[in-house]
Write a structure and sequence with these properties.
The structure is a single chain. The protein is an alpha/beta fold. It is 35% helix and 18% strand. It contains three helices and four strands, in the order αβββαβα. The protein has helices at 6-9, 36-48, 67-77; strands spanning 13-17, 19-20, 33-34, 53-57. The strands form two sheets. The protein has a two-stranded parallel sheet. The longest helix is centred in the middle third of the chain and has 13 residues, at 36-48. It is globular and about 40 Å long. The model has no long low-confidence stretch (mean pLDDT 89).
Length: 79
């Protein structure tokens, strides 16, 4: 019998709140919170854990999800 991973059969979708900061945060930071480089590293770890899609949820950021700010953050995090 051939063994396949769950992610090969089913998509794994995750939703995470994020907070993009101008400066890198320390080692005790939350996942998806920090500089663009830190958030990209976190996204890489999610991919390594077989997450196939992740939705970055802006609604729970400090200061709320003001549209212009969220769009700028999305542009900064784009590949």
């Amino acid at each position: 019998m051939r063994s396949t991973s769950v992610s090969a059969c089913l998509p794994i979708v995750c939703r995470g709140s994020f907070n993009l900061t101008a400066e890198a945060l320390g080692s005790s930071r939350r996942a998806l919170w920090g500089s663009a480089a830190q958030i990209r590293e976190d996204l890489g770890r999610y991919a390594e854990a077989s997450v196939t899609q992740i939705f970055l949820e802006p609604n729970f950021q400090p200061g709320g999800a003001e549209l212009a700010r969220v769009l700028a953050q999305m542009e900064a995090l784009a590949p």
